[in-house]
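DATA SHEET
Item: assembly model
Revision: 1
Owner: S.N.
Input lines:
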Amino acid sequence: QVQLQESGPGLVKPSETLSLTCTVSGASISSYYWSWIRQPPGKGLEWIAYIYYTGSTNYNPSLKSRVTISLDTSKNQFSLKLSSVTAADTAVYYCARLPRLYWYFDLWGRGTLVTVSS
Amino acid sequence: IVLTQSPGTLSLSPGERATLSCRASQSVSTTYLAWYQQKPGQAPRLLIYGTSSRATGIPDRFSGSGSGTDFTLTISRLEPEDFAVYYCQQYGSLPLTFGPGTKVDIK
């Protein structure tokens, strides 16, 4: 059974960099697209970025200047870095899998709440 | 592509039929429209992809239809576990976008 698990600090200070990792178990990270999506408390979903196992990436233009997505095939993990965070970046961050040919999200992690506060 | 969903909230009783709408700001190929269900404290779950294809394990009371800019998710007979928020998503063009959601709650 394929599972995704987010990990990282739950509290980040304003202006610092948010760093999260998604560990994939039950399947190889090679062969799929992998993505980050976030959801501010009580609000809707926002796609952040995706990465293919080849290293090809794509970012939401609204966040592109502050986001880096990367992967580590040896650890079967992919990661998110979001720089210069503000309170507006407080959200539940989900990692998710996309089928190879289409960009919908067929498998999600449980999500992790990241709060930006001093 | 901006997606709008209506109504914002749908109040229904178990056993009733739910019809949820998703409208796109420009045409979306039927190949590239998905629906998700989200319950409180949980991650979204894929229900429908390609406008009308049910994801693995999704009961047949869930169905999707539509084309162009207008898409619909129908729940034929609401079960107690169906009360949740539903989001549509387009994946025909980047950036990938979601609608704001429709909450289906118990009347």
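QC remark: Chain A is about 0% helix and 50% strand.
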